[in-house]
Model the fold of this input.
Amino acid sequence: MTEVNVTDDRPSGMQGVIADWASDQRAFKGVPWGKAMMWIFLLSDTFIFSSFLVSYMTVRMSTPVAWPNASEVFALHMFGANIPLILIAIMTFILITSSGTMALAVNFGYRKNRKMTTLMLVLTAILGASFVGMQAFEWTKLISEGVRPWGNPFGAEQFGATFFMITGFHGAHVSIGVLFLLIVARKVWRGDYEDDTERRGYFTSHKGSYNIVEETGLYWHFVDLVWVFIFAFFYLW
Amino acid sequence: MANTAEGQQHPLGIYFKIWILLFILSGLSYAVDILQFEGLLRWSLVCIFMMLKAGLIVAVFMHMVWERLAIVYAILVPPLALIVLMLLMASEGDYTELTRIYYFIGGSG
Done:
């Protein structure tokens, strides 16, 4: 078996863009269809999350009532003092750590190191699940303090609606990601992506290819990416 | 039989470097809140750290720097339309606030 790289003899730069799109073949050279589809899905998801964030900006700008101070609303009382945003900071670091373990899982996958790939995928899933757990804690705390989608004791009424909508949608993405990670981890562990396997089914269409780990990784990094924007616009603004 | 090599294979070191950078940048944006920076300084720092983090994740963790430009442009150019949406809605929101202040607060008497 010889290794052939489809992109080796193709032009690069702007000429490459034109050559690839005008090739009367697939436009995305060197990108498996699953990865291209994942990217296009993520592009559509970018528009969904951006629409949420833009609508949040619009209601926040258009209300004459003062917006609740995120630094105080999201503070936790620990060690006898109110520490601003501490839970959010921990959640941010957990999500970044999980992105790192995911990147390692992709790398070990392409090295065909099944054990390490499974370990890293499971670790990523655990970190993701703990993120969702902390978010549930945060929601419970805010709800017990009287924050509702139609009002809250701290200021502008729109705060609750945008908060639950944006973090809820993001939390749903993380939860689905955890499931996705566990499914792929199990398949990697069983050896469904090895050259000699006879197993066929969901997410196992290519024999001997660990591309699915990278595609799962793209989704997971995207979830982390969205959190970067939520952290900046919702919690720090 | 030819086996097409389509995987992204890079040394582990670069992931660890980016990982550490992301930690530092997150720490810095959290520090902006702890240190109670206000006004333009706060917004510009928050935005700079945010864009740097987003760029590092997309470029390295999502392997965009190693992809061909055909897919890079297909994915990264369409979101530019969102900047237009943001600008439109910012001017809309500004106008709505002014009319609310005028009719509900200032002009009620």
